[in-house]
Design a protein that fits this description.
With 337 residues, the chain is α/β, with parallel strands linked by helices. The chain has one domain: Rossmann fold (3-Layer(aba) Sandwich), CATH 3.40.50.720. It has 10 helices and 15 strands. The protein has a 7-stranded parallel β-sheet with strand order 3-2-1-4-5-7-12, sandwiched between helices. Helix 1 packs across helix 6.
Length: 337
């Protein structure tokens, strides 16, 4: 009670709460004195020692009225929904109306919902974008000022959603910011079957004794960040919403790791766990499913976001891979889809 009036804890709605990042964000929020509504197509995981009041809700957000019900009364929304095909792929669906409906349409729907609801104060929205939205528009260390030239349908969808949120912020409907994500890797803190990324896929192969295959000679550099660090960034964005609103920010470590270096590290970590020699790493021809950004470097400068929030990634890549390898050796032979 404060001055005889009950103080209501802020409500944070996490959309896409059952995925890899959504699970980590929900866990991070669970340690804070807030209310959390975790919304996804599958039931989200609730930490057993949660301080927050957590409501789990399953919903198809593309169904009429579901999104409005999901965000009713929200002070803040963390939007992590993305259209992914396949249970074991790091590839996002790259075309089709269904992909655009989820990746862009849900954001536009969210803006329309808040425009109709007219809450007393514009709610905070933190949206998950991708560093790859820049396409071939930048080189070297990216800081977010580069001209975007998205090369895939997924990145075009994400950019369109980001721009819709910026326009809605300028119009006073929401206070939105986009965090453009680097390549995320799980350390197995949560169910390792949630991690469909390239590092996890290659680590599974290496643990099984299968060779690792490189495209384009493995020269492209990626910024690899632990998903737990990314979750902390989303919470930091909620805490500094007004200073961040109206633009995008890059998450990253500022350090690029070539795919060849990553695969070498993965082979070494797997060998430590299996007691066998490291698996072979071989260059192969470019497969039919390759996209232009597979050969482009994406390394984000964390300094601008750090200057506002104090955030920086804490977990070293080797430690992430070592922990993930340990988790994968405990994983069932056929993880649930």
């Amino acid at each position: 009670m404060k001055g005889g009036t009950a103080v209501t804890k802020p409500l944070v709605v996490v959309l896409g709460a059952s995925g890899l990042l959504g699970t980590a964000v929900t866990r991070e929020l669970a340690a804070r004195p807030v209310r959390v509504r975790a919304v996804a197509r599958r039931p989200a995981t609730v930490p057993p020692d949660a301080v927050a009041e957590i409501e789990v809700r399953t919903a198809d957000l593309t169904a009429p009225g579901e999104l409005a019900r999901a965000v009713a009364g929200a002070d803040a929304v963390v939007h992590l929904v993305a259209y992914i095909t396949g249970a074991r792929t790091w590839r996002s669906a790259d075309d089709g109306d269904a992909a655009e409906r989820v990746n862009t349409g849900l954001v536009r729907d969210l803006v329309d919902v808040f425009r109709r609801q007219r809450p007393a104060r514009p709610p905070v929205v933190v949206f998950a974008g991708s560093t790859s939205q820049v396409g071939t528009g930048g080189s070297g260390l990216l800081d977010g000022t580069e001209r975007d030239a998205p090369q895939t349908a997924y990145d075009r969808h994400k950019l369109a959603a980001e721009l819709a949120l910026e326009a809605a912020t300028a119009a006073g409907v929401v206070r939105a910011t986009t965090l453009r994500l680097p390549t995320l890797v799980s350390r197995g803190t949560d169910d390792p079957s949630l991690d469909r990324g390239v590092a996890a896929a290659m680590l599974r192969r290496a643990l099984a004794g299968e060779p690792l295959t490189l495209w384009f000679g493995g020269t492209a550099r990626r910024d690899l960040v632990c998903v737990d660090d990314a979750a902390r960034a989303f919470v930091a964005a909620l805490e500094h919403a007004d200073r961040l609103a109206g633009r995008h920010w890059l998450l990253g470590s500022g350090t690029g790791t070539s795919i060849a270096e990553l695969f070498g590290l993965i082979a070494g970590v797997a060998a430590e766990h299996t007691g066998k020699p490291p698996v072979e790493i071989a260059s192969v021809g470019t497969p039919g499913g390759a996209v232009p950004t597979d050969a482009v470097d994406f390394v984000g400068d964390p300094a601008p976001f750090h200057d506002v929030t104090g955030w920086f990634p804490r977990v070293p890549l080797r430690a992430v891979l070592t922990d993930l390898a340990a988790a994968l050796t405990r994983e069932p032979a056929t993880p649930p889809a």
